[in-house]
Recover the amino acids of this structure.
């Protein structure tokens, strides 16, 4: 509100031609006539405050590798490190380059740094059309369970849950299984 409000006692003088009361020492001004004050509480202020705090909570930012130019999100889960290790990164980039993708095309995120994050939060922030979960149970981000190396479509996004990058580094059979699905993903 940007208007001045005046509360005037009832036992004071009335303004000429008006029924509102005016204090005796109150200066009359034609620029700002006294207005009656409504005692009805303003509704909706608490709702707006609640909405603003909910929106503030939704303004989540992520620290990720890449530029997300192709809206392709890569999630991995490493509790002992903040970012992807150099060996994991090298392996991942070899796989992606075989698909014609570079790091700038991807967003690579360590999910362990964001406990409790949901699929919808990720979708809203990254606007991805493809997401690969390396060693992550889809239920961890509020998705239904799915078999490893099977593509699931949800809304406008393709979801692929697979082995962790470390598992693929150690086991070429797992790497081959992943690649057979990834090449058409």
């Amino acid at each position: 509100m940007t208007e001045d409000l005046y509360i005037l006692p009832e036992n004071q003088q009335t303004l000429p031609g008006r029924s509102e009361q005016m204090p005796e020492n109150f200066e009359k001004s034609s620029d700002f006539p006294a207005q009656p004050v409504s005692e009805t509480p303003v509704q909706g202020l608490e709702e707006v405050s609640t909405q603003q705090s909910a929106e503030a909570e939704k303004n989540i930012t992520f620290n990720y590798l890449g530029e997300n130019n192709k809206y392709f999100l890569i999630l991995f889960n490493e509790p002992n490190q903040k970012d992807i290790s150099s060996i994991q990164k090298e392996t991942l980039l070899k796989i992606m380059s075989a698909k014609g993708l570079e790091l700038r095309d991807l967003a690579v995120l360590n999910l362990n740094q964001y406990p409790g994050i949901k699929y919808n939060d990720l979708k809203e922030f990254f606007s991805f059309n493809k997401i690969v979960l390396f060693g992550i149970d889809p239920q961890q981000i509020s998705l239904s369970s799915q078999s490893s190396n099977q593509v699931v479509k949800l809304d406008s996004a393709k979801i692929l849950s697979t082995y962790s990058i470390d598992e693929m580094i150690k086991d070429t059979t797992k790497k081959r299984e992943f690649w057979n699905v990834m090449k058409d993903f």
User: Anything to note?
Assistant: The radius of gyration is 30 Å. Helices lie at 45-58, 86-98, 119-126, 165-170, 172-182. The chain has two domains: 1-36, 72-182. The chain has a mean pLDDT of 81.
